[in-house]
Target: NADH:ubiquinone reductase (non-electrogenic)
Amino acid sequence: MYATAAGSVTYAATKVYYNRHPMVQSPPDPSKKTLLILGTGWGAASILKGIDTSLYNVVVVSPRNYFLFTPLLPSCTVGTIEHRSIMEPIRYITRHKQCAVKFHEANCTDIDPVNKTVTVEDQSEIKGKVNKSTLKYDYLVVAVGAENNTFGIKGVTEHACFLKEIWDARKIRTRLMDCIESAAFPGQPEEEVKRLLHMVVVGGGPTGVEYAGELHDFLVEDLVDWYPDLADKVQLSLVEGQSSVLPMFSRKLIDYTESTFKSNQINILTGSAVKEVHEKHIVIETSDKQRKEIPFGLLVWATGNTQRSVVRDLMGKLPEAQTSRRGLLVDDHLRVQGTNGMWALGDATFTKYAPLAQVASQQGTYLAKLLNRLGKLEDTTTTAATTTPDELIEKLRPFRYSYQGSLAYIGADRAIADIPIFGQTVASSGVATYLFWKSAYVNLLFNTRNQSMVTTDWVKKTLFGRDISRE
Ligand code: FAD
Ligand code: NAI
Model:
């Protein structure tokens, strides 16, 4: 028994040591094809994990040098989880591959599908003498995700906060505390206190609902202790254009969410589309065409996705094949229609699947396998001499999505879940579902380091409460 325990400890210690100190990698082999991956999100990270780097020269380009575990991002807006706990530097993945992988922190600003090149630009704050370059590729994977949809409504970008990236969560946390401290300023008129403490969320999809749930927890678990004079003046409203929130969940769970929100005193304004956004108020239009002004202190905008400009430009270059405005059209093997040697996945595409992490991640795993098979087949000179890459790909199995269920946190230690079991969808909600939600996401976190950081954050929050300092 002692020998087994000692063996396990040695194994764990060796794993931790090699995670921390990666081994020397083989250098890139110029005779291999260049596989260029755009992005470091769900789709790209999952390809990187599965790709055999001895088959290609892998190059990754992304403005973010880390992977972000988006399902726990709403928890960072109020400090339930600290933001670094859900970030994983991309080099923690690339440095553990057999052959060296190049990473360039840059935005891809243009894709030339004819000459097989991309333009990349360092758009970060600090730039060197060279900040724009052109890279050649043999194979390209477009995994750049999507950006926030404002539906062209003026004032959104200037006056609202989005919730997509780590800096969005940090901005929300700072603004929230700023609103509260400004409301506590001596002599603040009652009407202004009311406005500053009105937190408005636009969009009743899962992002808006999860954020509202987290904010509610912060108000009842922390604000009430540290700002006893203000706590009962805080109001939280969720504005949704459709007739209900969370249309992708089953009816039972929609009703459960709406009734939980009501009992948590979150105002749900369904059938109310935001038409104008100003510095201190929004204008909504109800289904009976009534217009109403709603003052706010903090405005969070969560109304879904639209395509990034680099993807839109690429679609513009392929007008015959790319006929949808909602994203790149791909075939069953995820090849971008109208191109050669180019694949796309995740939120950058328009397919029959919802824009979800589980879709992008499964597509990434599939694509890594496909590229590994292709690389091996191409290595076999006899096959490669007589067959084109596209003919080889046709022989490989197409992508198949396996739906793993939908989960969302709704606040007050309650979550909702639609879980597929033997072909049926089972709806589950409440505290037990919340515990399931927690364990599912801890398990899904990529490595022991992030798992321990998130678990520690939850323990810290329970023991000491959330940090209310304004950054
Ligand atoms: P992303 O993960 O967004 O990655 C895109 C990558 O491309 C990023 O690294 C980005 O920096 C990079 N990039 C951007 N522009 C460029 C450029 N010009 N050049 C190069 N690189 C670029 N889905 C679920 O299934 N379950 C959930 O619980 C869930 N929760 C979510 C919570 C929130 C708050 C949000 C916002 C989303 C959530 N989602 C969830 C959806 C999920 O995050 C997305 O569907 C998923 O991230 C899509 O993966 P992707 O790889 O296509 O894009
Ligand atoms: P969404 O597209 O799911 O929902 C946006 C909502 O905003 C819609 O219900 C829409 O009717 C509403 N809306 C749009 N314009 C409006 C306006 N002017 N006024 C009022 N309401 C308006 O977007 P969301 O929540 O940002 O999610 C994006 C993607 O990420 C989705 O595919 C979602 O499923 C996924 N996601 C999944 C999560 C989960 O599974 N737990 C969590 C968060 C996101």
Summary: The CA atoms of residues 244 and 255 lie 9 Å apart. The chain has a mean pLDDT of 95.
